[in-house]
Structures are given as C-alpha cells and as structure tokens.
Specification:
This protein is of the alpha/beta class and 531 residues long. The chain has 16 helices and 22 strands. The protein is elongated and about 105 Å long. Residues 327-440 form the D-3-phosphoglycerate dehydrogenase ASB domain.
Length: 531
C-alpha cells in the first residue's frame, strides 16, 4: 500500500504514522459521494470513521483499492460483502474505543434514574423543582448486558461497583466464562422479565435489528424497564420504544445512536424520559487518538509483512503474517495452477490439501485457500486472492479441506523434510501435485507419479506438456525446436521421470513467449506465469 485517503476527520496521528512509514497520505475531513467516486481510483487504501459510506459503487470505482480501514469498531457503513467479492481487505480497530463507549454507557445509566440532564435544564431555566426529579438508586437493581464483548464486559465491571446485579446474554460466551466476570448468563427470554436496565452491545446484523422491539418492550420486559443503546441504531426499535415510553411501560431510555443519523424525526429525543446524545460513544480525545494510531499501525505492520490484525473479512490472511509463510503461500497458489492445467475444466471441483512438515503444518489454514486461489486464477479469475477466495469458490462449486500429516508421502525424496500434497478431483478425473519450498522458492516435485528428482522451480513462464510414458527422446528435442524463435529466453527444458502411464515436459522461459505447436507425441497443457 503506497497511497491512503483519510476521511471523516481522523486524528492526525494516523497521518503522521503512515507518513513515517513512507506512505503517501491525502486528508479530506469531508467529501461528497460524487467526489469520492471520482477520487477513490487513485488510492490503495481508504480509512473512514462512521460518516462516510463505502458502498459497492465506491468499491467498484476504486480500481486500485486493496484495503478499507475503519477507525473504530462498527462496519455497517462499509459494504463488507461487496469488498470481499472485490478482494478488498476490511480492517477495523475493535478495542480502540472500548473504554470511551463503556464510560458513555455508564454515564447514561447513571443519568436515567436521577434525571440529571432534565434537572440541569430545569435549573438553567430558572426553576428549583426538587420534588419533580425524585430519583431512585442503582444499588440492588438488575442490569442486563446484551453482548458480552469488550464494551459489554467493561460496562458490567463498572456497574457492579454500584452494587448492581449483572445478567447477560451472548451466544458466543459460555455460562462458565461469564461467571468468571460475575455475570449470570441467561437466554434472552429469561433476561427480559428480570432486568431493570437493559444495555445492548451487539453489532447491527439481520438477527439483531429491532432486537428490542414491540413485543419485548410491551409484553416480555418488566414495567418501568430502562433501555440504553450506545451500540448501533436499529438494534432498538425506535418507534416501539417511543410507544412504550408514552404508555409508561418503559421507564426511560438513554440513546446515543439512531437508525438514521442525524435523526429527522425528533419525537423520541424530545420525550421527557429520554436522555440522548448525538453518537458520542467514541467521541473522546483518547479514543480518537487510539483508533487512529491503531489503524495506522495495522496498515504499516501489514505493509512490512507482519501479522495482520483487526481483519473483518479476510481471516485466511491472519495466518500469513510472517516472512516464512510467504513462499509457502506462493507454492500453494502455484500448485493450484499446475493442477488445473493437468485436468480439464469441470462444473464442480473438490480439493484436498495435505501439509507435511513442521514449518508448513501451522499454515494449513492459509495454504488451503491459497491453493483455491491458484485454481481460480487458472480458470480466468485474475482478481482472486485470499480475501475473496471463499466467495468465488462458492460461485464456481469448488470445495476444499485441509489436513496435516506426520506420515511422509511415498514419492517425497529423502532430502525433503516438508511439502504440500494437493489432490484435485473433478468430473474429468483426479490428479495430485506435490511441491515444497527450497531456499525461499516454490518448487514442483511431482505430478501424479511423475517425479522431478531435483525439483522444478515454479517461477517465470512455464510451458507444460504431457506425453505417454516412455516417449522417445525426440519428443524432448522436438519441444526444444518448437520453442526456438518464439520469444523470451530459454532457462530450462526438463522432463519428469516416467510415471505408470505418462510423463511431463516443462519449459521455463523469461519474457513474452508465444505458445509453440506441440511436436508429435506431446500434448500442450498450459502456459503458466509465475512471479
């Protein structure tokens, strides 16, 4: 990544950190949709807060775009699915605003039973009305925390110091783990009737939209329940909340986020039992510096070949963050291309990847997707990468599975201590290819039972041919004659060992090579271009 566009008034520490790493930075605090569509094509990455919407249209216009960074947690202003299909990494900073959001939530919780904003406004207007603002204590009340991630846990910890009983729900947190935080884990239907206060800390997803809705508020919750939302607008049904407030069923609400921001209908905000703020959960000096610094550090570290963190849509890349991983990923992609060259195209493909050896086995989560990327590239999907491989694989009916093995493959030469064995099966048949890494280079050692004892480097341009086992030496000579004068420079022309029914010939060349006509007895398979 060489060029980054910073939007939404991201703290200047982000620009400073990126610039120190030699990355060119352009800063635009505000930008219209039309201007963004015009300018995004010039950048490798864009970093936003919550104001700018990175839509499918924006992603399509960003022909150079490799990464969308979110200086914050939520990514609902980013079309993650479209980014994934386009092969663009989406990265966020999930921990950067945790404390600020938790503190703001606690402030709203504390404000509700004591009517602090309302009493303040009343006194400023000249009234001295103590009776009107008679409040209640938090001590002894039950707080329900929906979503026990970083922010939810911090809220629970702070409100426990007010002697509140904390119950919670999170489908990804076990009851035993919650108990370690002094939180009683319950199902939602058990939470609603017990909670005096409910605070939501989940992402906005189809199944969390209107999670706190009409039935929950009017039928399931206890009368007088108070609702707090500092997560995402839409988790609480605003229309249903207003009805519950007006009916007295809901005793108050603290709202920092809205379905539409800024809200055009202020009926909810103006309700006397509502304490509302304009999406200030992460709006502290410390949080904005923290998320700006974190997203910059994540980009710089990834650029330098270090571990990738904060990944939203490219989990396969999380296992690739070491220099030692790169040649194995290159090998895996190359083996996928070679296997595709040997088999005829098919409507469905099954891939099995076996990792053998101490260095490659820990990379199993990454090399499997990399093999699929190679198969996709061979099928004409030039944009395939470790971000969009799963989407494209599904589109093309490609399934794969990884495995690790301590059992040495029978064809593996004694001197080779680790390898990848890739088996591809289609309606046209099945083939296996085996390779390893030697001195940081991807090397092919076998196709089926045809071996290259010294290995075939998978670099430059490779012309691959197949012939029947036992083909005469004139086939190899004929290939040498065929490539003469076809452009490029000949690096090597080698034959595999004879297999049970076939053998392979490989011509490695540099430069632009015109595909030659195969001599008698040989079948041209593919022209493969490796980095």
């Amino acid at each position: 990544i060489k060029t980054v566009l910073l939007l939404d008034g991201i703290d200047q520490i982000c620009s400073e950190k990126l610039s120190e790493a030699g990355i060119s930075v352009t800063i635009k605090a505000k930008i219209s949709k039309d201007d963004l569509l015009k300018e995004i094509k010039d950048y490798d990455a864009v970093v936003v807060r919550s104001a700018t919407r990175v839509t499918a249209e924006v992603l399509a216009a960003g022909s150079k775009l490799q990464l969308v960074g979110r200086a914050g947690t939520g990514t609902d202003n980013i079309d993650v699915d479209a980014a994934t299909r386009a092969g663009v990494i989406v990265m966020n900073t999930p921990g950067g605003n945790t404390l600020s959001a938790a503190e703001h939530t606690c402030a709203l919780i504390c404000s509700l039973p004591r009517f602090i904003p309302q009493a303040c406004a009343s006194l400023k207007a000249g009234a001295w009305d103590r009776k009107k603002y008679m409040g209640s204590e938090l001590s002894g009340k039950t707080l329900a925390v929906i979503g026990l991630g970083r922010i939810g846990r911090e809220v629970a910890s702070r409100m426990q110091s007010f002697n509140m009983t904390v119950i919670g729900y999170d489908p990804f947190v076990s009851a035993e783990t919650a108990a370690q935080w002094d939180i009683e884990a319950l199902e939602l239907e058990e939470i609603w009737p017990r909670a005096d206060y409910i605070t939501v800390h989940t992402p906005l997803l189809p199944h969390t939209r209107n999670l706190v809705g009409e039935k929950v508020l009017m039928q399931y919750c206890k009368p007088g329940v108070k609702i707090i939302n500092v997560a995402r607008g839409g988790i609480v049904d605003e229309a249903a909340l207003l009805v519950a407030l007006e009916s007295g069923r809901c005793g108050g609400a603290g709202i920092d986020v809205f379905t539409s921001e800024p809200p055009t209908d202020l009926s909810l905000c103006r309700h006397p039992k509502v304490v509302c703020t304009p999406h200030l959960g992460a709006s502290t000096i410390e949080a904005q510096e923290r998320v700006a610094l974190e997203i910059a550090e994540q980009i710089v570290t990834g650029n330098a070949g270090g571990p990738l963190t904060g990944l939203v849509n490219a989990q396969a890349l999380a296992a690739c963050g070491t220099p030692a991983a790169l040649p194995w990923l290159t090998l895996a992609t190359s083996l996928g291309q070679v296997a595709s060259a040997v088999l005829a195209p098919s409507k469905s493909t099954t891939v099995t990847i076996q990792c053998y050896g101490d260095d490659v086995s820990p990379l199993a989560r990454a090399v499997g997707p990399a093999v699929v990327v190679g198969i996709l590239k061979a099928a004409g999907h030039s944009s395939a990468n470790l971000v969009n491989f799963a989407t494209l694989a599904s589109d093309n009916n490609i399934t794969f599975q990884n495995s690790t093995s301590s059992e040495r493959p029978s064809l593996l030469a004694t001197a080779i201590t680790q390898c990848l064995l890739v088996t591809v099966t289609t309606s046209a048949g099945s083939t296996s290819v085996m390779g390893s890494v030697s001195n940081g280079r991807a090397v092919l050692y076998a196709i089926q039972d045809c071996m290259w004892e010294s290995g075939l480097p998978l670099s430059c341009t490779l012309l691959l041919f197949r012939a029947s086992s036992g083909s005469p030496d004139t086939t190899l000579l004929g290939l040498g004659t065929a490539v003469a004068g076809k452009g490029g420079r000949l690096l090597s022309l080698v034959s595999s060992g004879q297999g049970s029914s076939e053998q392979y010939y490989a011509i490695r060349m540099t430069g632009d090579v015109i595909i030659p006509e195969a001599p008698a007895g040989a079948e041209f398979l593919a022209k493969l271009i490796f980095s």
